[in-house]
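Appendix B. One record, verbatim.
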Amino acid sequence: MKKLLNDPSRVVREMLEGLAMLAPDTALLHDANVVVQRGLPAPHARRVAVISGGGSGHEPAHAGYVGEGMLAAAVCGEVFTSPSTDAVLAAIRASAGPNGALLVVKNYTGDRLNFGLAAELARAEGIPVEVVVVADDVSLRNTVERGRRRGIAGTVFVHKVAGAAAAANRTLDEVAALAREAADAIGTMGVALDGCTLPATRQASFSLADDEIELGLGIHGEKGVQRTQPMPADELTETLLTVIADDLQLVNGERVVLLVNGLGATPPMELAVVARAAINGLRRRGLVIERAWCGTLLSALNMPGCSISVMRVDDARLALLDAPTRVAAWRDTGRVNVDGAVGVASHADGGAVAGVVTAMRAEQRSTLQHSFDAAARALIDAEARLTDLDSKAGDGDLGSSMKRAGEAVLAMPDTAWPSEADALAELAVTLRRAIAGSSGPFYATALLRASRRLAESRAPSASDWADAFDLAVSAIAELGGAQPGERTMLDALRPAADAFSAAVRAGWPLADAWAVTVEAAKKGADATASMMPRVGRASYLGERAVGEPDGGAVAAACWLRALTPFVR
């Protein structure tokens, strides 16, 4: 496993130095891996210092939460290893005064021992210290008693509640009480799609097969409580929510906040899908979602997966969550737009291309519809091949784009096409909406240009279709600025259009004309394998793109071939 590291034995210190350089309101202790708020008052004037920490590898936790309104200091151990007692004591000395310190500790043995001993040593020096242990992992509810569960991502909620209470100048006893009540109101459960890789070993903590996921894992690369098969995001989220809601005994009408947390290698796209499912799941249970946060807030190195945390709230706790903080890793508001997915109507489409509308005979309409459907199914079937080709020379989305296009075409209503021209115009609208990226505009523009040509005739002939094909291909070249020979879909479409026009002008039977058209498209697509890309994303790769045909050209040859039974 490749890593952007120097010496693995110095990764934590170098990371903290980098984080401190990027956060002007923090400072790094010279002799300990402790990040503290910069500019704290003199000890006698300090408020309660909220301190947390644990092993590194959970970034942005814990150093990322040091700042006004959250942590006064964060103690960072080696990767997945509790910090030493001396480091915790150094953090207390550097940030606390007579008003004392609250230590927020996740329920792992090493953390409890080292933070607990440091608390005793600090008390012996005259610094009041309270310890709050977070044990929010509901996946262990059938394995160990509540007090022995692990502390995981819900700890971030406790940081915020305690930090806001301290910033409001509450006493140590009050801050500790609020933090404990918050910890007791949280339930969290996670899922891993694979293990994570420790910097020193560069080996995964565990490995999962393609048909396995791990439910109920901790945050140190340890395995979960159940290994099961992958499932859609909605089903997986519901599985996690069910355990959380049952453990917290949530009932209709209760107020909650939500945290969807990435474990280090989960992209925002997937986290947002989970957040959607979680919000919908909580609403179905009749719960009032007061706030929601989504992002990587407490990770497990590069583990793919996520956790979901739910916390009960009342007005007082919600006010502490809403209190301002100057911590970049925490998004202040967390306000949730629960109706945001309902949708807002856009302006009217404006209709399809105006043209001569004629009523096609039933058999004509049926043939045209069946031909469109055949092309659509061919693109759906080619998804894997197109994805593979595009991954080698582009961004890998062509297969999924063409599949979406095919599915959209199959969903077009039977009544959409009063004429050939209008059929192509409707197809242009369908593809424009279904295909993102460059393919959508290319195909939509081509179809609109062809539609206008066919609208000139009440009963388009083979010659009219040949002209429309030629104009469509020219439209793509004009829009994209490409020419044949530059490794694009034009390398299949231009020779196909030329072959069709020549055969029609020569008076060939339509079936024969189409046969040479399809063959020209295939040869053109195959020839792109040896072409140097000049436009598009493939051009960034230069010679590295040579060797496989262009995906766009192969897609064009694919749907042209699928039309063959219907061209007669």
